[in-house]
Amino acid sequence: MTIRRSWRARMYRGGRPGRLARVLNRIAAAQHSSGFLAPSGWVTVEVVGRRSGRTVAVPLVMTIHGGERYLVSMLGRRANWVANVRAADGAATLRRGRRESVRLVEVDVAERAPILREYLAKAPGARPHFPVDRHSSLPEFMTIAPDYPVFLIRPAVP
Asked: What are residue 62's phi and psi, to 5 degrees?
């Protein structure tokens, strides 16, 4: 395990961001939202907090697979943003230079493996949080698919 990999894993000990990770996430959310300061695919998702009722901004890496856009939870099913999206029935705002109202639809477990593999190829910062390598076979990704929620990005229905 490299120093970088172990350092990132410590920042998210127990599947939750620690103090340093929260600060860095705020900075990354602003960077991802700008659109011009971030690589392609870096976005910020805004969703209403299920307990606080306030808008929560989370920096994520958007993956494109089969012509569709997806968001993956690198911290697994216990990530706070995942619970907020589920509580909001998928209603969210995607930001990358501009705001886009979207509906996030959870992908069935049986369909997640190729999306997860594509995600790991695009999001090197997420790799320490996955028990498989980005070059692993699809059957290996199938074994971890239940633990990593994937959301299809759809336009919001008025």
From this structure: -85, 135
